[in-house]
Amino acid sequence: MLSSYCVARSRVVTVAPSRPTARLEQFSRHLEPKPFLELNTPFSTERSARFVDEQGNVIRPKKQPAPQKIVEETKPQKVASDLKPHKIFEDIKNLSETPERPRKMSSQPEHPALLIPGPIEFDDAVLQAMGHFSESHVGQPFVNVFGDVLANLRKLFQTTDPASQPFVISGSGTLGWDQVAANLSEPGDEVLVLHTGYFADSFADCFETYGVKATQLKAPIGERPSLEEVEAALKEKKYKLLTVTHVDTSTGVLSEIQALSELVHRVSPDTLVVVDGVCSVGSEEIRFDDWKLDVVLTASQKGIGCPAGLSILMVSGRAIETFKARKTRPTSYFGSWKNWLPIMQNYEAKKPSYFATPSPQLVRALDTSLKQILSKPVEEYFAAHKAASQKVKKAVADLGLKQLASKPENQANGMTAIYLPEGIAPPQVLPSLVKKGVIFAGGLHKEIATKYIRFGHMGVSVTDPKRPDITKAIESLKESLGEVGYKN
Ligand SMILES: *Cc1c(COP(=O)(O)O)cnc(C)c1O
Q1: How confident is the model at residue 300 (pLDDT cuts 50, 70, 90)?
Q2: What is the whole-number distance in angstroms between the Cα of residue 78 and the centre of ligand 1?
Q3: Residue 309, pLDDT above cutoff 50
Q4: I need a surface site. Which of 172, 196, 335, 371 has the fewest CB within 10 A?
Q5: pLDDT of 396 over the 50 cut
Q6: Would the CB of 206 count as within 6 Å of ligand 1?
Q7: The Aminotransferase class V domain covers which part of the protein (predicted)?
Q8: How close is the Cα of 175 to the center of ligand 1, in Å?
Q9: Residues 302, 311: contact at Cβ < 8 Å?
Q10: Cis peptide leading into residue 119 (ω within 30°)
């Protein structure tokens, strides 16, 4: 727990005299018990960080160049084969060996590299797809694109079972929780929620909203519940669903999905295995069929590298059967699979169909990002994330800093949650990082929010060798800590 936070005791750590700051009041919101019906929006430090420097002075944003006109003509969008996927898979390690890379990372206006655990940096072609002229959501060209998206999601999730069902619905990752709670559980059902950080509390809260009883199995901060603990919990009670956060974005803890699913199938074979993959799909390997998963839910803006606004799910045939066998009607209207299932099946068969209007522009952006990811074997995409992650984790250790996830097997590949040296708080570091062109996120886990920062390394920032993002972020972190008096 907190022991993993302490900076090695033998090391002399010098810090700038700590200054009481009004900003800390804002963090303390994390620490206060949540009143009923409080807005469920954790105040995160990145917001203040962007506008206030380490002395508490307001940073005036530099005048931005006039926004670029993205689409000037109404030519049909390029198809995937025309898009030149960036040379994704050049060895990421080369990045560190190449001292100076061109500052300009893309044709986008200059901006600090957004290295938070989602939204992430987007590729030019993905953003350009968003500028597609308006088209009918039941017109054949769009329906064809939607069909391709659903087929490509099967590839990304590594499922060839025709009974698996992809869903793409307007909304954010959170809508995936609502879909699971409203379609797969019924009021009064029991579910087991494995807790590795903030997001499990919210998923449990979502179940409770639908009258479903959520039991949380919690691990100390930076750890995950052991398989033995999960086994004991499953033997104690029959659970309709078990949920696990693949990567908890508040702690950077990675869960062991394959072993966990094997365990559930052995000990409690009727329990459906639901994976919150919002911060893992794209950056972590997921083998939907081989691992016998029932739901993997995600969003567009993290490892998939598409602007926010889409809730994306892969659902097993077994889970669809569970849905069809409900005794009560789904407890959501917009999120009901009764409404969406035929629509998704029609789209995949490239047949126009309507329940509620999808966003053609977002779906086109998703189509572009999926085609880029799948332009090579997915294993290579995961390997690129692993290599970048190893590089970040080594740099963090070389700086004498600790991660929340102290054990290598618990560490995510798409992000790193880093304890700051004792006496240094996020508001002293994040603003100076912004000045250097790097945006990190502050802490999110309510018990320790003021003690750590989060570094997201997903998507084009790690796969596009033209982008200096990761190397620059590591150097900037070193410099920023030096500026506030940290000596390693
Ligand atoms: C970001 C995130 C969510 C919530 O997704 P939104 O798109 O913000 O609604 C849920 N779970 C995890 C693990 C996440 O990282």
Answers
A1: very high
A2: 31
A3: yes
A4: 172
A5: yes
A6: no
A7: 129-445
A8: 9
A9: no
A10: yes
Q: What is the mean pLDDT of residues 156-185?
A: 98
Q: 358 CB under 6 A from ligand 1?
A: no
When mean pLDDT is compared across 74-78, 276-280, 301-305, 428-432, the lowest value belongs to 74-78
* Distance between Cα 279 and ligand 1 center (Å): 7
> Which H/E stretch holds residue 347?
helix 337-348
Q: Are strands 438-439 and 113-114 parallel, antiparallel or unpaired?
A: parallel
Among protein residues, the one with the nearest Cα to ligand 1's atom 2 is 278
For ligand 1, what atom is nearest to the CA of residue 301? 7
**313 sits in which H/E element:** strand 310-315
What angle (nearest 5°) sits at the alpha carbon of residue 126, between those of residues 64 and 160?
Answer: 155
Contact yes or no for 400/11 (Cβ under 8 A): yes
The CATH T-level fold of domain 140-373 is: Aspartate Aminotransferase; domain 2 (3.40.640)
CA 75 to chain centre: 33
Domain ranges of the chain: 140-373
**Residue 160: pLDDT over 90:** yes
> So what's the pLDDT on residue 44?
35
Q: Residues 6 or more apart from 278 whose CB is under 8 A from it?
A: 118, 173, 176, 199, 249, 297, 298, 299, 302
Q: How far is the CA of 280 from the centre of ligand 1 (A)?
A: 10
Residue nearest atom 1 in ligand 1 by C-alpha distance: 278
Per-residue tokens: 274: 């639901």
Supply the residue whose CA is at minimum distance from atom 8 of ligand 1: 173
22 in Cβ contact with 16 (< 8 Å): no
